[in-house]
Amino acid sequence: MSKGSNAPVPITALRVELGWRSGPGVPDADASALLLTAGKVRSAGDFVFYNQPAHSSGAVRHEGKRTAGGQVTDVLGVDLTRVEGAIERIVLAASADGGTFGQVPGLYVEVTDAASGAVVVRFDSPGATSETAFVLGEFYRRQGGWKFRAVAQGYSSGLEGLATDFGITVDEPQHAAPPATAAPHPVVTPPAPVAPPPPPSPASPPVAAQPPAARPVRLSKVTLTKAAPSVSLAKQGGTSGVMRVNLNWQVRKQLSGWGGRWGGGGRGDLDLDLDLCALYELADGRKGVVQALGNAFGSLHRPPYIHLDGDDRTGAVAAGENLTINLDHRQDFRRILVFVTIYEGASSFADLHATVTLQPQHGAAIDFSLDECTVPSTVCALALITNTGGDLLVQREARYLVPERAVSPQRTVDRAYGWGMNWTPGRK
């Protein structure tokens, strides 16, 4: 497609892929979507991006990023059958992190049918230069159907400027006021007399109640890498509330030991069942595991203050697997190791492309991708969270482990990190 052109799209579940070539000096980029009514969002909930990965209607979902063969893709799932009637347009945007889009080679957006994989539309090379955010295209209603338009509208003000333009209130960092200087000798003075309030004036008209302020959106995030593998939750503002740990995956090739083929947003002939788990050690010395195996789902409001939300067998439904950690009890944690095992459907993590996201309720999102697996591994240590002086330090592990013969994945990760637990066979 060329800039400004449009084409009809089927009313079905679609996969929107933002892609570019990686390389030295190439900045990262992030896909996002805005669901609009009369040109604006109705609320912050109509903005889908890395810190807010799913729309409440289920119509739009941020599926995550992967790197393979020198190509980077960031994917959105858009199900046009689930778009609310009030939504007129879905804007597909991108923001550059650490540079401009003029430094991003081979930029494109491609829309495919999620079920069949057939390409519906594709828009290449929008002609970017110094822009740090871009509206690449949009879905819009037309005569009872939907169409896609190639837009290529750039912003030099980044994701913040783009979001603000569509009605989003952005949460800016708050700077604490300097502490007041204490007087050397406190002086006590009697309180001033308080005058009684004046009687209400019968002629004064009632004052209309002000609508509540729009909920602000936080755009900041942290990406952990081999070069910068750890981050303090306190420094990111994640000191209270809950933190969701999400594992989202895509399978792009045939897995060893698995006969199906599946990728991003659908299911294969057989289920690939990955289990997100967590070993924990509390401050009082108690140890345990949170996992679907043995129905050890944990608890959010009593020890271990960690809860496994469910058991997703696709990596796409319900946005992958999720653990929730209660940060209001961070003083009760000594360490938490988040890991993933293959329960069934494959003999290793080969050709699995996974993204891990830790989303504190009151802090910046923390994410990282798993490296390519080149060993016959069925268990991968994802992140180690340790209590350091009351602060929780998140360490990227991304470590594939190979169990010895007749040794379970859980026992393997226990031995690697010195947890020292006794294990017995379990079933779902």
TrEMBL record:
Region (Disordered): 172-215
CDD domains: TerD_like
InterPro entries: Stress/Tellurium_Resist (IPR051324), Tellurite_resistance_TerA (IPR017115), TerD (IPR003325)
Pfam families documented for this protein: TerD
Biased composition (Low complexity): 175-186
Feature: compositional bias, Pro residues: 187-209
Limits of the TerD domain: 3-166
The organism's place on the tree of life at top rank: Bacteria
Family statement drawn from the similarity comment of this UniProt entry: Belongs to the CAPAB/TerDEXZ family.
UniProt protein name: Tellurium resistance
Origin species: Streptomyces broussonetiae
